[in-house]
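Data availability excerpt. The first of two example chains:
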Amino acid sequence: MSRPVYRDASARAVFPFASKFAVSIFVMDYFQLERTGDLTNASLFYFEDPFNAIRHMSNLWVGSSVTKYMPKHPVLVSQRRGATKLSGFIGGDCGGLVVSTKARAVIEKLCPKQKIEYFTCALHSKEGEVLSSDYCIINPLGGFDALDEKYSKVNRADDGKILSIETAVLDPKKVETAPHLFRLKQESTTLIVSSKLVDALVEAGIGNLFLRPLSQPPVHRPSGPIAVYSAVDKAGDRKTKKWLWLECREGDQLFASKKIGGTTLPDIIGNDLGAWVVAKRVTKLLGDLEYRDVTIVDRAGNLVAGYVTVHPHPLDAFAGPASVVFYESEGTVRSNLRPVLDPAKLKGAPPVFSLTHVAGTILVSDAIVKKLAKLTNFVATPLHG
């Protein structure tokens, strides 16, 4: 089952959180639902702009009704060749949510009075195979005001109207009456789910749920020494333009961007695909981990072998609530979110591992950092303990 995820765009890191810890670990009870699902799993069904035949498709992004525009039998087509694996939640790049009938039943049970549009749809592979007719498009209508505007980081127009939200902090009093699934009133493209709904979905076997944890106003400022581990930045050094940059993936083939980056192959190839891609010779420095062979397709279309993706064993070293946000001072929230490690849990930890509750983040010890320091395009950020 896929773990929920939080993607921090500023740090270009992926932070998956296990939903069963939504209540016990985090100080918040709500999450932002990412529509993309697991982008690192190329076998999963994924769609882009499937509603091009529907007029007023933008209604799906903002929570306006699309009943009179929706085709009688909508069909969603996978944008990935060979991607036929289905999950309870279907990832895609559009305004609506696509879920299985089982997931719909869970949502309907916990949101009986909420205004939500449901449209039964079929899923087809890129090759035209009918994969399932047992899915539906969900469109939660309207919006709910749960934002704490004092602590949230927002961009405003000259008249004070909120244009966009960079860091959303929820108001504890407002969420007392919040539904289990809703759009944020101040930014209706943002979908919020409660931990109760997340737990119910996971208990029903619904996978591919990727979530961004949302915090409540600060109580105190986390502090502590710098831990002896650093988080790998899979994007590498974005300032050095000569390095090859990967922009998409199909199976075990990773394709270079023709617009971003250069043509030089470094020891570690940067990307936003959630994969740590390293040259095979680097594995000698990392030790006994799981590695999967991949083929790089460079800008000219040439196939380049000799690279692997790294998949370390997970370890519970997560410090819980302190990891959600760093606070500059009482009442001031920083937008750069990073996980915080629990020093007690680091005793006996291996030199390379991924966090159990932040599984997309790969951590390397100081000893490994020293070994990798001379490699081209290696970037890692020390974490707080």
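And the second chain:
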Amino acid sequence: MSIKIFKLDPRIAKQCGRNSVKQENLGRRNFFSRWLLKTKCNRETLVNAITVRNFIKMAEKSISFRSHLQSNTTDLLDSTSIPCTYTVRLVISLVSRLAAYTEEGVPLAPSVFICNSVSQLVQIAGAGEHVALSNYIETADAAAKILKAAAPLCSSNWRIYVERSADGRTCKFGVFCGSNDPSSLTVEELALSELDPNFPIVRISQSITNKVEVSTSAGSTIEFRFNDDADVPDLNNKLKIRNLAISTCRSLSPVDPAFQGFMERVLTAAIRASHGTLIAVVSDGGLKIPPRLSDAVALAEPLDLYLRYRLHHEESKTAVSVSRLQSAAELLSGFINSDGITVVNSTGKILGYRAFIKSGEPNAPSDGGARTRAFVALSELIGNGLDAAFFRSQDGRMELSGANEGALHA
């Protein structure tokens, strides 16, 4: 109908397109009346104009996802013994803002922990501390103030806490941190490992832009998406990173589960902080970079993460051993954030970085960007020098290919 109307009277179509938005709050009826009087239109034009006016009116529509957010958030908080409408409103607001939060154009992705006592939260998190940033404020409307004041402070090991009052109507907020020991469990692992009915915890964090994860100490997790990605759980990405960590430890004898956990934490932080990356794991603890990755910047001496991890525990976690292990973990993160492929082996050694690979069939058609094509080429080396290949796209999609893929995904 709209096409027919605009075709019948181009003057109306042009004028409506130019002025309808500007006149939205000034009274569309007055606009049409003045236009009709000015042009002295006939009856047919009048009917067309009224139809256009009604069409524009019908086209005005506002769609909110708040009801979906509210129902899912309410169910999630009920499972943690926080049946509080004020806290539900706070979580909804935090989720909506954290989907693509920026300060002065800089993207920020802090983790927010909601609890009933920050002192107890810090105690659970291990050797840490907290800094209060407010007195009690209204909980339901606190999200904007919390993120504005605290989000820029949350780099490295710092996170935001929100301490609820007894009835949930008001809250205080600030920042806190856990242990700086890179071999220790993360705050997330410690705080969300098991449910204490007397001390429920809710964590809100952005996994990637437009995807926000809400987890509870009851073991429940919901991922809210604000895009049109395929309905494949990004929670599987955690499993892929875990399996990558297993691959980096596969040739250790004996296998050290604690070091595997350390590698998983280091890789998770580095991969999530990157804007896309590729990682290749050389099989059987080999110290040579495969020939097709010969463009890599090879380290003169492999960086042995497992040796540093073992010395850290043998030396009773001294300040020197903490610094040595932390420095190695930060360097691995730097490698992963560089262009090209980071090369490690299956005994926890970093062999090189900034490697590039060409497809074995230069003229073969391929889909996707350069990083996707490189991952396809890397996957061809699985079982022929590589134990695993890992890929993360700029938009957060992750893939893992491995020689024992069934075992990796077990």
